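so i finally got all the pieces together for this one. its two components total, 558 residues if u count the protein bits. some of the lines might not be protein, just check the labels. i wanna see the whole assembly predicted at once instead of chain by chain like last time, that was a mess tbh
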Amino acid sequence: MTGVVDFLYIVAAILFIVGLKMLGRAETARRGNLVSAVGMLLAIGATLAIGGLSFEWILAGAVMGSLIGAVAAYAVKMTAMPEMVGLFNGFGGLASLLVGWAEYHKWIALGQAPARPVFTAIAIFLTVLIGGVTFSGSMVAFLKLAEWINGKPLLFRGQQIVNGLLLVGLAAGGVFFAVRPELGYPLLLPVVAGSLILGVLSVIPIGGADMPVVISLLNSYSGLAACAAGFVISNTLLIVAGALVGASGIILTRIMCKAMNRSLANVLFSGFGSGAGGAAGASYQGEAKAVSAEDAYYLLEAARSVGFVPGYGMAVAQAQHAVRELGQLLEANGAEVRYCIHPVAGRMPGHMNVLLAEANVPYEQLVEPGDVNPTMETVDVAMVIGANDVVNPAAKEDPKSPLYGMPIIEVDRARTCIVLKRSLKPGFAGVDNPLFFKENTRMLFGDAKQTVSALVAEFKES
Amino acid sequence: MGLLFFVFALAVFLGFELISKVPSQLHTPLMSGSNAISGITIVGALAVAGQTGNRTALIVLGVLAVAFAMINVVGGYLVTDRMLAMFKAGKPGGKK
């Protein structure tokens, strides 16, 4: 019987690998997700088929979890996707923590000592630690993204000292797990509490625009937590699947950091955008040229090539459908329309792509900065919708700017640049944007959705 | 024990190789899809909830673990599918 189960686990692991591979290409992504889901179904089925499991409690938990998961997955709005992914992620971490806890309980309360006490004890410690950090960190990320709490970086005096003491305490906990695993709950509970606090403290100093990095890092952690749980129960499927997720999360994290030209340590510890980072670069003076929707319409009407640059502001205003409508009208008017998406625009990796896909923008029209920057001079109108830091030319021009070195979408090199914005306020990073004062920039003030809808109306009237 | 580390190291390596080149439009689905895979911890949760020996502590831990892992699994796969269903090509045979 275990032979059959082992075989099914291998098949499941292969399905995960193939599924992940297929998820990496647009044409096969949806089937890839399905392949991976079949792998999961197989893993669950094989586990249930091992004799000796009684189903009553399994059923209770499974029905409850499936219902909540399914309802949440269908009810969530696309604009709320970042916080939903964060929430699911946190629950995965919590589940791993609980598995580690239960295995420890069996050991100390029921006397079911494992064959390799030291090894298993350390694995339990890591499962609880990583699972706890994943859970509480994801919850804070969720609260910030859903704007239930302020998304600004939160720094307090002595934060580094508190973090340091916490890490020392947790390391001591790990040592005790290795040498005195029989200590039981007086050892486990402080480690659980410490890991939860660590998760909270790790995420509160990180601001909204750095969320893509945090979300992908937490994603990686949830995989590692499952992986550690696999070491606890000596299950290779958990180890393989968890390690795959851990590795993919790390890669996404690296892509996000590279897109901001910042190191992971800088994102995690600097409290970027809180103003605590010291010199905020030069402040720019000049006259911003404001235009009306009608003026902007004439510019767009004459344009042969238009590039939209969406940012978090488009998500907040839920303007993606209006933007797509404007894009179609421009195309009907004979213009070439592209959507230039910066990897860290929005609050999670690929946030803008999801929103534009929801609005039925075909993915061929979505381009990356590297595709559009070399030919920016041929773009008649670059239209920035609720993006700021990712188009800030100070990243190229001002070595004192905190953004200096970050690859941007160089809309300042377009023939004309229209910036849709509510005010001249600086973006998330708190850095002034010289783009607003450039010769070829026009500011179109107002709510993104209303403004774009007004442009759509202008087109329809003519 | 050595075998477990061997498997772990290979899987990490494989993960890096698999994901190294993904177009940015797929970042979100990739993340939520791989997030669903991290729900594999359900396998450990099932083993807990299915062998409680009627001990209250294990029942509570097991049921909660299964429930949270299932939210992760079911929610993760469904939301990924919902997202990917929206990614459409403009014209068939269009450039990638």
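Residues 27-85 of chain B form one domain.
Chain B has four helices and no strands.
anyway lmk what u think
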